[in-house]
Design goal:
Subcellular location: Cell inner membrane
Keywords: Cell inner membrane, Cell membrane, Membrane, Transmembrane, Transmembrane helix, Transport
Oligomer: single chain
Order of helices and strands: HHHHHHHHHHHHHHHHHHHHHHHHHHHHH
Number of strands: 0
Membrane topology: Multi-pass membrane protein
Shape: globular
Distance between the termini: 49 Å
Helix content: over 70%
Number of helices: 29
Organism: Litchfieldella qijiaojingensis
Strand content: under 5%
Protein name: Transporter
Radius of gyration: 26 Å
Structural class: mainly alpha
Length: 671
């Protein structure tokens, strides 16, 4: 057993901070994490208390971590004053809601001038914190939403209404009405997105931080390598498996690329994958981590809240689509390895499963606790609390056993000084985990806060219903065209918004149309929008995860983006299959569910083979051409059409296998 791994990279650590600021960041971050643990497992708080304190601490942390003029410039006097003013704004707006909550509720709808002023400060503070932590795009969309609310004959900016297309017009709202919606009610900044961020998401992000800081990430990567390393294209397959596991916990495809990719991409290149292929594989696999249970980034909790579906049910129905996605990426990796004649890694270069499990089996215990408590239908927030506590206990026991029993055998004596040193090191590791969890949560919480502004304006102005009407008109009632519009909208939103915010905004806009006008079941509509919200990670010209993979692989960003797009094709096809074959999500007779799962996997495999022109051996153009309509037939909700498509695919793929057998026999005979 070895000592715990080195410290992880902490978000915002690249900024130039003075020592007092660093101490203050640690103090606020640790305080935030302890507050979240207290409210999750010891004393739950009321809705506004929980959300306002959480947001205030998150914004304080954002203004400390991200200086006003950027991370690579010193604050200086002007920057320090600006940051101090916004920091004070975060404290004031959160504190005001906590101290005067009863009075605010008592005068609901008849706000005082102080309420309005504090609400304006809160909105400006949220937008600025978002600009620093999430990016300018999110802030711009939030500002546009506010301007849209003011545009109209009764609004603060009536002249703006003259520039609105007819269907987008509304009456307009004054400052008091908008602030009441955004800050003083439950449908704005402190709405459902912030509620999910302040409860479920944070505690699981904290759990992921402790997994990362205690070395569990390396354990799962080593386990993936031990399981797949000797196969053809082993490192690429290990990247797929490791990214599936770590991506679900990390909550960010880009973060997953730069962490697991640091291990996997160099090994893929060494084995024979081209740099842009290696970067694309890692980007596609890391993006898949965001749709993988149990956490699905932050999506599982949001979907559960929006659809009023038990969290465990969302996890259950997401397992098969996630398997289908990773099976497709895995098959792409395998086909490329076959085409390029790659071999696996030597046994001497790989960790042994036995050794990996002996050194890190204890990391599985917190995951077992998490799954067991979820199955017992405990609240996800309480489950996250116990998962974090069990992770800390396991880490302490691991370190204690190493110190008392392993270290003495290596010549390190147990003395009072060494005990003091070990206790201090353990305390430092605990603080590191608490700080890392809080830092990791800043971006997603700020995205949810601004998403609350957007959702509040949409609810106030009725924009969602108007957008649904436009969507129905443009698609002409055709469901495939409507889904294509959702895909394009998610890609455009993905240019400026993180995945979580993109999903929230998009589901508010298009969700009503998908369910009421096109008859898509509610849960499937949310899953489709959530899956499509990932596409900005792998779709050129944006392909954010692809560009991150290019940076690690040393390849051209656009080439890597196109590779990621190719490998992640399941991201576009599987939601279509959910819509036209809903039994794989909402259930049905067991034979029907099994049939649908079989034809979906077969179609995805055939699609990969057609795209690469290779399966068991090279495919000529004729079977590839014949297979395309057969793949399309599988998505048609008619049993006879589906069966015909399956027969054609089995014939073409079976024919490819027979050709491979003949080639192998001929090669053996000539040899």
């Amino acid at each position: 057993m070895s000592e715990p791994a080195a410290s992880p990279i902490i978000p915002g650590s690249q900024a130039k901070h003075s020592r007092p600021i660093l101490w203050l960041i640690t103090l606020v971050a640790v305080g935030l994490s302890l507050f979240q643990l207290y409210s999750a497992g010891i004393q739950p708080l009321g809705l506004f208390y929980q959300r306002s304190i959480h947001l205030a601490l998150i914004m304080m942390l954002a203004f400390l971590m991200f200086p006003v003029f950027g991370p690579h410039r010193k604050r200086g006097l002007v920057g320090g004053v600006i940051d101090l003013l916004f920091f004070a704004g975060a404290v004031t707006t959160g504190g005001y809601m906590v101290v005067f909550l009863d009075d605010i509720i008592g005068r609901a709808g008849f706000w005082s001038q102080t309420d309005i002023v504090i609400g304006c400060i809160a909105t400006a503070t949220v937008l600025e914190a978002s600009r620093r932590a999430v990016g300018l795009g999110m802030t711009v969309i939030g500002v546009l939403a506010i301007l849209y609310a003011f545009a109209g004959p009764r609004g603060e900016l009536p002249w703006l209404g003259n520039f609105m297309p007819g269907i987008m017009e509304h009456r307009g709202y004054n400052l008091d009405r908008l602030v009441g919606q955004l800050y003083l009610g439950q449908e704005g900044i402190f709405g459902l997105p912030m509620g999910v961020a302040a409860t479920y998401i944070f505690v699981f992000v904290l759990f992921g931080a402790f997994l990362e800081s205690t070395g569990a990430g390396k354990f799962f990567i080593d386990l993936a390598y031990a399981a797949t390393g000797r196969q053809r294209g082993g490192p690429a397959k290990a990247a797929v498996l490791a990214s599936a596991g770590m991506g679900s916990i990390s909550g960010s495809a880009i973060a997953n690329v730069v962490t697991t990719g640091a291990f996997t991409i160099p090994l893929m290149k060494r084995l024979g994958y081209k740099p842009h292929q290696a970067g694309g594989i890692e980007a596609a696999a890391s993006t898949g981590g965001q749709i993988t249970p149990p956490l699905m980034g932050a999506g599982a909790f949001l979907i559960a809240e929006y659809t009023n579906t038990p969290y465990l049910d969302v996890v259950k129905v997401s397992i098969l689509p996630a398997i289908m996605y990773f099976a497709t990426v895995y098959l792409f990796v395998h086909i490329i390895a076959l085409k390029q004649g790659m071999q696996g890694m030597a046994r001497s270069e790989l960790p042994q499963v036995r050794d990996v499990m002996r050194q890190g089996w204890h990391f599985l215990l917190p995951l077992a606790v998490l799954i067991w408590l979820l199955v017992m239908h405990m609240s996800p927030m309480r489950v996250g609390f116990y998962a974090v506590i069990s992770m800390i206990v396991v880490a302490v026991l691991r370190y204690t056993i190493w110190f008392l029993f392993i270290a003495p055998q290596q010549g390190e004596k147990v003395t009072l000084a060494s005990i003091r040193r070990v206790v201090w090191a353990g305390f430092h590791k605990l603080v590191e985990g608490l700080e890392l969890g809080a830092r990791n949560a800043v971006a997603v919480s700020m995205a949810c806060a601004v998403a609350g502004i957007i959702v509040g304006v949409v609810g106030l102005t009725g924009l969602g219903l108007k957008f649904s009407a436009m969507m129905l008109a443009f698609s002409g009632g055709n469901l495939v065209l409507a889904l294509l519009m959702v895909l394009l909208a998610s890609l455009i939103l993905g240019m400026g918004l993180p995945v979580t915010a993109s999903y929230i905004v998009l589901i508010v806009l298009v969700g009503p149309a998908l369910t009421s006008e096109f008859g898509v079941p509610l849960l499937i509509a949310h899953l489709v929008v959530f899956w499509y919200s990932q596409d900005s990670n792998v779709t050129p010209p944006i392909a954010l995860a692809g560009f991150a993979g290019a940076a690690v692989a040393g390849s051209k960003p656009m080439e890597t983006g196109f590779q990621a797009w190719k490998f992640a094709k399941g991201l576009y096809l599987i939601p279509l299959f959910m819509v036209f074959n809903p039994e794989i999500i909402i259930g049905g007779p067991v034979p029907v569910v099994i049939w649908n799962a079989f034809i979906a996997l077969l179609a995805l495999g055939a699609f990969a083979a057609v795209l690469e022109g290779y399966l068991f051996t090279r495919m000529s153009w004729l079977p590839r051409l014949v297979t395309v309509p057969a793949i399309v037939a599988v998505f048609y909700p008619d049993l006879i059409v589906e069966a015909a498509g399956v027969v054609v695919m089995l014939l073409t793929l079976g024919g490819n296998w027979l050709v491979h057998r003949r080639e192998s026999s001929a090669a053996a005979a000539s040899g």
